[in-house]
Amino acid sequence: MQSLIALFAGLLFGLGLTVSGMIDPAKVQGFLDVTGRWDPRLAFVLGGAVLTSWIGFQILFEAKRPVLADSFTWPTARQLDRPLVIGAILFGAGWGLFGYCPGPALAALSLGHPQTIIFVIAILAGMAAHRLTPVKRPPGSSRQNA
Amino acid sequence: MSYLSDGLPVMEIAGGIMIGLAAVLLMGFNGRIMGVSGIAGGLMTPKRNDWAWRLMFIAGLAAAPVAVTLFGGSLPPVRMTGGAGIAAAAGLLVGYGTRLGSGCTSGHGVCGLARLSPRSLAAVIIFMVAGALVASLVHPLLGEV
Lengths: 146, 145
Fold this sequence. Notes:
The complex is a heterodimer of chains A (146) and B (145).
Chain A: H1 2-19, H2 25-32, H3 43-62, H4 82-98, H5 102-107, H6 114-132
Helix pairs in contact in A: 2-4
Chain B: H1 2-5, H2 10-30, H3 36-41, H4 52-70, H5 84-100, H6 105-114, H7 118-142
Helix pairs in contact in B: 6-7
């Protein structure tokens, strides 16, 4: 049952990314490139998504438990630490370079652009590389925020 | 501003609401944060009973454009901005960076901001600025491929 919800949530998320144009790398770069002919339209995607989930989360904060699971796994990390800063810089650089973040890239796989397939494989390689790198973490800054 | 001449950003707002609803759905039913890099990254260290929902979420995500076409909708233009080399380099940065920084546009951007998390707000500002810097440098050079 949880898998079914996950499938539906993934589909709904992907539909949102598709109709909003987040699956178009040129549009994303046009949004990020504030020095050129800046296209601010994609800010409405983030704005709409944040506002909608903010409202929904307010309701969930009052709930005892999720419908299908024992507890909510809200992220617990609080500190602004070095891994967060460096990770966000590296991620942002990659996002600006090609115009895809992980969600839209996965959603666009079926469109069959070779670059998208290469990009997704490289994401997995980058994630594997991170797993193989021994990083000392202060307590409380575990990878729970993703 | 170019968006005024292109009309109101109706599809952008509609898409954003769908993304937000998906995040609420995943938390409300499964108790999980909708962060794509976290969901995908969790498959690298699969725990018992904790991989099926991840695969299903990604399957749903990947099926979305197919579903749009199937129901007679039209897809927006999808224009590549770089070749294989750029894609590979960018993917490595995104994969490593999102794991090190504990999240991407969905986990920090959508869910983190909706939770009013200062840590996520910092991450969003940093990756937006980094993205803007790099895109401003490469966008005029590469354009569309």
